[in-house]
Prior knowledge:
With 216 residues, the chain is mainly β. The chain has no helices and twelve strands. Strands 3, 4, 5, 6, 7, 8, 9, 10, 11 and 12 form a ten-stranded antiparallel sheet that branches. Strands 1-2 form a two-stranded antiparallel sheet. The radius of gyration is 25 Å and the shape is elongated. The model has no long low-confidence stretch (mean pLDDT 93).
Amino acid sequence: RMTDVSGGALRFSTWDYAPQNRDFFSYTLLIPGGSKWNHRIILSTQNTKVGRVTRRFRNSNELTQLDRVNMTALNYDFRYNLNKAIQFQGGFEWVYNKVNSQATILYISTGAVAPSGNTRYADGGARNSSGAAFVNGIWEIKPGDFIVEGGGRLTAYSLEARFTENNLLKLPYSKAEVQSLAPVYNVGFTKKMGVDGLYLKTRLSSGFRNPNVDDM
């Protein structure tokens, strides 16, 4: 960024990351269920605090943007062996993210600090959450030779971003939100072609992408 040029002049005199603070905690519980069932539960939480400090070339005002993100997730996975040839895997997932963005201006000539609406994300805060359930099955019709696989996933997603009257874009609304329900699937098979190491594999699947906080 310090080498960016615009109109023959440097764009920035300062472009720094403020100290980045991160912490992550996770607990995994494994629940054996004999020869047929296996269960796993994962609970995790993560917090990040990241700042960016910028000052335009020949500008005496320094902008500090500070973003705090809290992330919480709960995962449950299972594996079920119906018999030696058929196996199922599945579970559910819940994820919640909360984003808080702030910005301040330092007037270097006077040392005064004032709030700024130039935040990286929605200045009124943003949050998103998703919940999903999924299952996948594998059938070894002929072990090591012919395998069929298929599964599906259903994801519910919501996002909300709020904007104050001081937002830099001067938006004519105070909230932007989206909610969606996305079903996806996959099906495929693997066939050995009679030569060691040579297989024919094919798969058909669907997918989706939800907008994130940055998109909003």
